[in-house]
Amino acid sequence: MRRPQLVLLLWTIAAVLAPACKTAPAGPSTAAQPPSGEVWLTDQQVNDAHLTIEAVATHAVGNDVVTSGKVTFDDLRVAHVFSPVTGRVSRILADPGAHLKKGSPLCAIQSPDVGNAFADLDKAEADLIAAQHEFQRQKELYEAHAGSQKDFESAQDSYAKAKAEMERSRQKARLFRGGGADAVTQEFTLRAPIEGEVIARNVNPGAEVLGQYSGGTAVELFTIGELDRVWVIADVFEMDLGRVKKGAAVTVKVVAYPDKTFSGVVDWMSDLLDPTARTAKVRCAIANPGRDLKPEMYATVGIAVAGQSALALPHTAVLRIADQTVVFVEDGTAPDGRKRFTRRIVAIAEEEGGDLVPVIHGLSAGERVVTSGGILLSGML
User: Fold this and answer.
1) Which of 14, 157, 171, 299 is deepest in the core (most CB within 10 A)?
2) What is the pTM for the complete model shown?
3) Total Cβ atoms within 10 A of residue 178
């Protein structure tokens, strides 16, 4: 081989072997890489990621049936007030939010029904007197054999009808007098039937209102009640009905107050099942001293039922990756001293309600599982 060719060959070999002969510098760039399904983190990285790690333990699970519901009034503590007379509202005497005693005035209504009622009473009194006189006269004639039995019985019937009409008119007038009706001004005062707060007012001065007994469709003028205790009507699925019992403890949460829990009990269960939704209505009495729960609010209802003890972990620890259910387990330390987190496939009982889910297999008691922040580890794989 010629000398120039030999020199060229030696230079080529040296160029190929040179990188392999260099001493690798110390530092993170030479750290071992975690195998598939594992994430290695330093203590500082764990703190920065705000990971929460808890040991798997035995808990009471399946102790709640979780369903949806809606807040309603306690029917025994609310009154929907309608006008008994047809007329025009002349004055508003109670505003929303006012706390009233039973019998307190709500509004004044100018109504011709008031004048008609007292006129009917006067007419009934006059008719009764006339019928009574005729009855006495026919009775005397009949007893003296100077009158026919037919006239006597006819007078007797007219007298009985007059008494019945008199009683009807008197009762109607008593209803108006109870409302402070004035026969002269024909003004009727609508009053609160129970003690409570004016929750809603649906009428303004000058509005025309229809009487509740006039045969038409009367409009609710006021809603009066107490909200220190309300009902939550929950829908319980057919499969859970056998576990729900009257008197069971209830917890309620609403969107308006996500960090607040309201407590109560089941006080009634419907005997009917909705044929479409396959649910039954369950009524829960809930204490509401701060009046935070409002009628028509939607709620999440947890009903306490008999449960069992099992190995369980929080819902937040469970991740769905493709068609697998996985958790991240703290599995000792890596060769370089970092904490090792291993992705583990598990099976859980998803149908159980509550914050904890039972573990069927895949974990053992005492293993430390990431219960918050696992989604971050999943993104590092």
Assistant:
1) 299
2) 0.55
3) 12
